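Chapter review: from sequence to fold.
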Amino acid sequence: MSHFAIAVRHSHEERNAKSLGIEPIFAEARKQVFMFAAYIILTVVAAAGNIYAATNDFIRPKWLLGNMHKLGVPESSLPTLGVLKAAGALGLLIGIALPLIGIAAAAGLTLFFTGAVITHLRARDLSLGNGVPVMFLAVVVAALVLGICVREA
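The token string follows.
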């Protein structure tokens, strides 16, 4: 079927839906499905990123130790940072089924990565760790906002 035929068919279906008064229902349902899919994708990406970061905190690669030394973060705090990131990741994933846990986890990770950005700024690291904490912050804030919006719909 050509693109033109699909467009004509879709237009005809929309006219029929509008005449029956059900067009707004379809539009709202499409919006909810899209937002939920975006929420799931962002949540899984945020969780995967935090699991990766937590794993690095536990295995302590040399590059991470060097970065932490430059920031003035003691090596002894790495296990705590790893546990916080892993707990946040787990909370995000559980939050798909239990919304309040997901929202709490996203809020906690938002505070965590805000603290990371502040740590970089206090150490005068204006590259902000090549933008890594900012990227993590953006993803968890997006997951938080979508998590709230999806649950309100």
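Two observations follow directly from the output. Residues 23-152 form one domain. The chain has one domain: 23-152.
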